[in-house]
Amino acid sequence: MTTTIYLIRHGITAANQEDRFAGRTDEPLHPEGEAQARAVAERLGGAGIAVVVAGPLVRIQQTARLIADQLGVMVATQPALNEIAIPHWDGLTKVEIRQRFGPEYPTWLDTPEQFRVAGCETIADVQQRVVAAVAGLAGEFADRVVLVVSHLIPLRALLLHHLGLPISAFRSIKIANAQLVRLTMEPGSERGRVEFL
Question: Which pLDDT does position 1 carry in this prediction?
Answer without folding.
Answer: 82
